[in-house]
Structure formats: structure tokens, C-alpha cells
Design brief:
Rossmann fold, Quinone Oxidoreductase, Chain A, domain 1, 33 strands, 9-stranded mixed sheet, alpha/beta, 7-stranded mixed sheet, about 35% helix, about 725 residues, 25 helices, elongated, 4 domains
Amino acid sequence: MKQVVQNYKSGELALLDVGVPACKPGGVLVRTAYSLISTGTEMMKVSEASLSLVGKAKARPDQVAKVMQSVATNGLTATYRKAMNKLDSYTPLGYSLCGVVEEVGAGIDDVAVGDYVACAGNEHALHAELNWVPKNLYSKVPDGVDPRHAAFGTVGSIAMQGVRQGEPQIGDIALVIGLGLIGQLVVQLLVASGVRVVGVDPDPARCALAEQLGALKCGDPGSGVIDTAVAEISSGHGVDQVYLAAGGSTNEPVELAAKLARDRGRVIDIGKCSLNLPWNAYYEKELDVRFSRSYGPGRYDPEYELEGRDYPIGQVRWTERRNLECVVDLMGSGRLDVEPLISHVSDFSDAVETYRKLNEGELKAVAVLFEYEKRAAAAAEQAVASVSVPKPSAVRAAPKSGGVRIAFVGAGNYASSMLLPHLAEMEYVDLTEVVTTSALSGANAKRKFGFARATTDLDTMLEDTAIDAVFIVTRHSSHAELTRRALLAGKAVFVEKPLALTEKELEIVLGAIEESGNDRLQVGFNRRFAPLLNESMLHFGPRIGPASVRYLVNAGQLDAGSWYNQADSEGSRFAGEGGHFIDTVSWLLGSDPVSVYATATPGHQDLQILLRYPDGSTASIAYTTSGSSAFPKETIDVTADGKVLKFDDFARASVFGRKKWASSRIPKGRDKGQAAELEAFVNALTTGVAMPVSVDSLVSTTLATLAVNRSLETGAPVQIGRD
């Protein structure tokens, strides 16, 4: 299928061939009829992409701050690779469309194949021929509503949420600053609510359009016309609400808002304009400044958007989906008319040229629609009888001589920055297929790393007997089941940590090994392969007596939106990554733990874990989130036989004993062992030797990681062992 994409690094726009998205449970597969270009949000993104790296940094200081934090935590090399991977990737455009339901996923009963739906979301309502849309991000289009108009549903919801934040009442007076697409919709929604509206925009054509749609008076902000109109309509008191629907870096909108608002009026920010509030003006009127977040409650909440968990209507009257439903209902009743806003309809095949004309000012428009192939309409008539979504072709590239044919399930940031660059350089590796839920993610991986093909069809990949090994680099909750399926399919498996989130999941994996006789399994415990750590242990030398290990993990706080916070579905944060540290300690001590005891601060923010080993050695792991980001992330001390190894965050190391040794003062970069780990895995596949880490060790590490939570619950040590 075709999809509009942009490379944020180069600014290149393209109409790309990508795989068809899978129809997952909890959503529907939609064939697009019309999609709407957001002439504000999207064109800002398109313009930013054409800037230099310095210009991009100035435009996104929030991202620069994240990069600097990553440098402090992960080192310059890893951060640069990660940042360039994100920049040099195709990203999607679009978030508002109308289309025909082509396939219905499990658990969906409110729409049927052949129904028209309005769809929302910058990951699900893209400028693409087909989109998978979860339940809370679509709404059935009422009979009689033109699909062209329904394509405005998402943008209409943004305007509606802004109006709701203003809490207008019949007879109020409102000022709308900025009469672009959002502003025009705000004007109509306010008029429909019985509000008297005044508009501001420097473009006379947009002012005239707003007056046509019900505004009492519109004009240029510097002309004085609006000041006079507000004074007359409000009897000199000022407007009740000001809706900021303007963009740009000028501070004029917030200054005008303060000037024309009444005492204790409301100012609602819907757009993205400068908000350097003049303190005296806002203080003297005690203005109430409010923000409107996108389409409404539910936005940015993965449980609502992806898992379909609705908010009770008694608690949250107007959610993201209910706003969308309300907008298309208003269209159906004729109280919201978007036809006058449609400046241009472009054939989807001309998408790149349309963006160019908009960006260069050649095409002046309030709203632009992409019209897709006429077969979208034909599909609505035929789909009720039978629908068969075409799958990507399974044409195979010729393998390298003697090469290991590898498939990847998942191609997110970690896979693309820490695993695939190393594999792509290996002589005896053939990157055969990449499987992703997002077709664009697969297309990016195929372009960057030379995969022979990209698909969303996991089953077909697993059935391909020519594939030797499968890498599983997906979210934690999927690891055990995907590992089970790949092992039963006869593939060698490299699965990122964790192997399992529960003991039941672990038993599922072990059952697959027993059933298939296939134990070619590796978990991504890379730290034991780190070159500096291996060099340090050589200088530390053989150990005679028991050792004491102290491992401090200064994990830090997660971003609020991180999926690691989804403990109900993805397990605790330690369950997700704690195996790294337990495996490293076990490797340092040359055996697996026999017991685990854990304690924690309130809320389990900081953990203290004590591991006991068969020879009497002990290890303490402090896993903390309350420390300073300026301090190294991982530090290790090993003490035994009159010697001490001090290891500082994969950058420096030293050994104190009869002879003192220290690594170079100029670190080569934080190499956490991914390259060596992959070399060892590929070597095991090509030579037939044992896997780099035994299954027994992988199981022991997993059991020890899971035992941490059990010990926290019981307050007692947990013995580690397999029946």
C-alpha cells in the first residue's frame, strides 16, 4: 500500500510503498476514502524538517535536553547512534480521516465491514491507503454525512475540546484569535452554542469566511476594528472568553487577549503560540488561563487509546471518542458545515507535490483533502460479502553464501540503534525479514539495514523454513509467547530481556523447549559481554574464596509516557530490566544464585536486593530511581581474596591488589557488550557450538528476577531452584 512519509533529517517527503497493517484485536482495518491535511500542525512539522540540525535543535529545545541527558547516561557514541537513527527515519503524517471498514478485529461489535468511520490519531489515522484504528479512536459516520466532511472529525474534536475548556454559555461573547482551520471550526461551534463571536486574523479572506460562518465581526488585529466591535458588543466590558487558535512565535495574541478580555475572563490556548504572558495585565484582570489538550480526555493514555478502556460517562462526560461522535453528529444535523473550509482536494497520488505547494505558499488553503482511489467507495459496496486483505509478497532474496538467515520481530529504537547496526555489518548474517505491527516501522528497517522484505504477517515468517533465527525485540508482555512460537517453529531465538514476566510464562517457554527439543535460545543479557568488564576480570584474576559484590544501578526517573510505567500489562520496571544486573553478577561469580531477599522504600521506588550463591558469595544490587542523573548509571565493586575491582559505568575500571591496574583515563565509549553478544550468538549458529549462555543459567536469572517481587510481598528470602 502507499503512505505519505517524511524523513525528518533530510526533509524528504515521499509516497512510500509499505506493508499492509495487520488487523489486531480491539480495532478495525480501515481503507481510507479521504484524509485531511492539518495546514497548521502538519505544515509546521514539514517546515521544521527542512531546517539544518542547528535549526531543528532551536525548534525543539525539549528534544535537545533529552539528548544531553542521554549523553550523560549512555555516552556520546550510543546517544549519537540513537539520535541519528530517529532522525534518519521515515515518520508518518496525518491524523484525521474518513474511510471504509475493511476488516473487523476480535472484540469489536459496534461497526461492521462496509461502514464508514471517522478516525483519529497520529499513529492510526495516517495519510495511508489502509490504517488499523483502535476502538476509542473511530466513530461510525451517520447516514447522510459526506465522507469528505467526516474526514474533518479529528480536527473538529480539537476545536470542540477547546470550546469545552472555555465553558461558554448562551449569550456570552468570545474572541477567536487565528482564523485558520481550527479557528474557523471554533467559530462555528461557538455560534452553535449561542455565543456571539468576534474573530481576529491578518488575512482578509479568512475574516470574510468566518463572518460567513456566523462571526459578528472579524478583522486585522492592528486595525482597531476589533477593539471597536468588542467595545460595542460588550458595552465596554470585554469578551468572556478568548480562544487562542494562532501559531507562530509572536507574543501579540496573548497581549491582545489580555487587552480585550473582561475582568476574570478566560483565555484558552488551543494552538501553539508564544505564551510569554504580560504579568500585570493578566494579574489585574485575574484572567483564567486554560490549556486544551488535543482531542479530549483519553489523549496520550495508552490504556484508553490502545486497549479500549473507556472512562465512565459519569466521571468523564466528554472523552476523545465522544467528542469525535459529537462532531460527526453535528455534521449530520447541519449545525457544523465544513464544506466552505475545503480549499482544495488533491488526488492522493499527488501528495508530495501538494505538500510542496503548501510549504512554498503556492497553494493558499484553509483545508486540503487527499482523495484516495475510487475503489475505496467500491470497497464499501463489496466488502459486506467478502474481504481479503492483500498480504505482502514473499519473494526471497538470495542468501549470502553460508549466511545465517535472520528475521526480526520488532524494529523499535533499541533494535535499530543497538542491535541491527552490528548485525548488518556481519559477513555471515543475512537480514531476511522484519515483522512489525506498524508497516512504516518495517519499511524504515528494510531501507536502513537491507532486509530482503518487511511484513506485518508473523505467521508466514514463522512458517518460512529458510529462516534460521528469530530476534524478538518487542514489548515485555509478548516475549514469552513469541519465544514459544519461534522455538516450536524450529528457529534459534534471541529474545531481549526479560524472557518472561511470570513463572507461568517461563514454564510455557520451557514446555516449548521440551516439546520441540529446540534449546537454541539466548536472552539479551549483554553486560557479561562488555569488553571493559571482561578486561577488568582478567586483571582481577582467579578467585579462591567467596566474594562480595556491590552493584549500584542509578536507574533514574522514567518519562511519564513511558510504556515501562504500564506495570499491569508489562510487569514492574525491575521485572523488565533487573535480569541484566542479576545475570552480570552471576557471570562475575561464575554460578547462579540460590536465594533472593529484597526490600524497598515506599512505592517500591528504590530496591535493595541481596543474592546468595552456592560458595557463600553474596551480592547486593541497589536499584534506585531517586538519585541524581549526573551520577553514573551503573557502578560495580567486587571484593575477594584481598583484591577489589572497581567498575564505573562501562567507561573506567581499576583493580586493587598486589598489582594495581587501571583502564585508560580516556574512555573509548560505553560499550555494554551488544556487539560481542551478537557475535557470540551468530558464531553458535554458524559453528553449532553451545549457545553463549546455558538455558539453565537463563532460567535461574529469570527465576531470581521474579523472586524479587515475591520477596517484597512476603518480606522473606526466596529460595531459587527448579523442580
